[in-house]
Design a protein that fits this description.
Chains A, B: This is FMN reductase (NADPH). The structure is a homodimer of 245-residue chains. Chain A is α+β, with helices and mostly antiparallel strands. The first copy, chain A, has 12 helices and 5 strands. The first copy, chain A, has a 4-stranded antiparallel beta sheet, with helices on both faces. Chains A and B meet through helix 1, helix 2, strand 1, helix 5 and helix 6 of A and helix 1, helix 2, strand 1, helix 5 and helix 6 of B.
Chain lengths: 245, 245
């Protein structure tokens, strides 16, 4: 196992940081490393908002559901899918541009995620800790207003970065067995692997909580599939020009 | 610059490979490294189909627009956003599950992309070359049938992996200046940075083609925003249970 793969397998979401600040040049280097990721047809359909204003950091921490570390970590980034830059660049050449295609939403969201994952891993390779903030999508319209995001740009997720408080480093969370994820030639049922994983997650939660947490992977998923999880996303995207045509 | 960041900044899409095959244990290690990536609420909403059947490899090469290296590279993977596994797991606990939310499409697509980018970089850290295949979405229904993908699973992109033919390694393609991508506190216009990048891309294409290719970044984007780019994606996703409600 080489050091890069080792780094990937030791990822955990860090939410407790020291007061040390990340040098500006390091931050730029992380973004440049992010830009090295593959991008669909070279479109580079992303922008990153570096939120430094303390009031805005506190406001975003609230809007994301009370995640204080957004306000206190060294640096907070909002990764945005950006179809404004490329569509306008194309338009300036005289091209006839159609916006709002479902495919464009996918291209921009995937481009943004590939780029962000490089940033995350680059940060970890420099000894930093990170935490993705999907809670950005709890209130995407308010956050878009705060960051003055124009049409055809939407915030996909945030990321907290900082030097981890090594005395409070969370454990690496187990993952589904590789046999459930990797399938040969065709999709196959993985109910048995999921059942085995549920058992190991139940032991994991019990051990970590001193017997107080009695749950497993399958039970933990319920809030995600409840109708209440971000039902505003469709209208929000449409309103920002991602009409999913 | 540490070796992990160096690796990110030297990424290129490799389409020419030697005949050497990737050991099975290495492939499993790459997938496990992929699984180390952050996942929204631990949902792990992805499956990877390892396509080994030569007839299917050739058929996918055609369906993706005549990309022969899909058939000839050592290993070909199709990364799928998978909402079947977690929604059914949740349902088995007795939960009332709503499918087809726009948010679920985003969660699964982003989860898949984060995971895949780890796989890509893990492969490169082992001396392999990779190429993402967005052309999977040229004919997603036919490819889903071929791989027997059930409802609530869709193929986001493919990935070719193999040992690069080092005598035909493509150059690292330039990226937009970091000043265009990283914005302080609010979205700002980057027309000037794009114009400068267009100039440098024009020189890059001219040099590489011995003066024959006269284009730039903005002109190259036109096919992406033409109405003809994958207008079937919306209906395809709806038909597979991703209704974008």
């Amino acid at each position: 196992m080489n050091p890069t793969i080792e780094l990937m397998k030791s990822h955990r979401s860090v939410r407790q940081f020291t007061d040390q600040r990340i040098p500006r040049e390091t931050l730029l280097e992380l973004i440049r490393a992010g830009q090295g990721a593959a991008t669909s047809s070279h479109v580079q359909a992303y922008s990153v908002i570096h939120v430094t204003n303390p009031t805005n950091r506190e406001r975003i921490a609230e809007l994301a559901g009370g995640q204080d570390y957004i306000a206190t970590c060294s640096d907070f980034l909002v990764f945005c899918a950006d179809m404004k830059r490329p569509t306008e660049a194309s338009e300036r050449t005289g091209a006839s541009v159609t916006r709002g295609m479902t495919e464009q939403l996918l291209v921009a969201s995937v481009d943004t995620a590939l780029m962000a994952q490089n940033v995350a891993l680059a940060a970890e390779s420099e000894g930093l800790g990170i935490c993705y903030i999907g809670g950005i999508r709890n209130n995407p319209a308010a956050i878009s207003d705060l960051l003055r995001l124009p049409a055809h740009v939407y915030p996909v997720f945030g990321m907290c970065l900082g030097y981890p408080d090594k005395e409070n480093l969370p454990e690496v969370k187990p993952r589904l067995p590789v046999e459930a994820i990797l399938k040969e030639d065709a999709y196959t049922d993985d109910t048995e692997e999921v059942a085995a994983f549920d058992e190991s997650m139940r032991r994991y939660y019990s051990q970590r909580s001193g017997g107080r947490k009695n749950s497993d992977w399958s039970h933990n998923l319920t809030p995600l599939f409840d109708t209440k999880l971000r039902p505003h996303m469709r209208d929000f995207l449409v309103e920002r020009g991602f009409e999913m045509k």
